Amino acid sequence: MKSTLTNAGKKALATACAGILALSLASCTNGDVSSAGDSRKIVGYDEINKEYRESIGKLSWPQDYTPPESMPSDSGTSFQQGWGDTQASNLFQCAWEKEWLNTYSSQPERSEEALKELEKVPEMGFMSPDRADDATRRFFKDNIDKAKLGDPSGIQQDVTANCPAS
User: Fold this and answer.
1) Is 147 within 8 Å of 158 (Cβ atoms)?
2) Where is this region: Disordered (predicted)?
């Protein structure tokens, strides 16, 4: 079978393959991981669970919510430092989004508290440029702006797509 790729097409294909290979190799590491000045190591479950528990302890939670004491055990898995904090932060965001959804139309003081807590999310580590992209941060901001106007659609969409059932 004769190839129908032009020289330019062959060059583009080779460049794409080289890029895929580079990304594949970069994701298979067991040392330091660096990105934009960020240097986080790969660690085991015990260390990442400790990080998770420390993060859980530093965060405030809605009055009717208690976060899990530990991350689910995943023996044999390695984690990038920051993953425990990210998991705790995701739970924080979900807990306060659910709190807002449950109170925005009936309990103004609790819903206002939920929005104040959610306003902390953009400053949290899991929303930093090395862990979240601009689109994610913009999506979150747009959802909060809608919520401030009494529109639950953005927060409901996020909860449905990203939050565990409780």
Assistant:
1) no
2) 59-82, 147-166
- How far, in whole angstroms, is CA 75 from its chain's centroid? 22
DSSP 104: T
The total number of residues shown for the chain amounts to 166
- What is the pLDDT at residue 85? 96
This prediction has a pTM of: 0.75
Tens-place pLDDT, residues 37-47: 457 799 999 99
Q: How far apart are CA 8 and CA 153, in angstroms?
A: 47
Taking the CA atoms of 154, 156, 157 and 161 in sequence, report the sign of the dihedral they define. Answer: positive
**∠ CA 93-88-127, rounded to 5°:** 60
pLDDT in tens, 155-166: 999 999 999 886
Tell me the one-letter amino acid at 8.
A
CB-count burial class (<10 Å; 0-12, 13-18, 19+) for 110: middle
Degrees to nearest 5, angle at CA 100 with 86 and 49: 20
Evaluate whether 40 touches 81 at the Cβ level (below 8 Å).
yes
Q: Under a CB-based contact definition with an 8 Å cutoff, are residues 60 and 93 in contact?
A: no
Residue 79 · residue 87 · CB < 8 Å: no
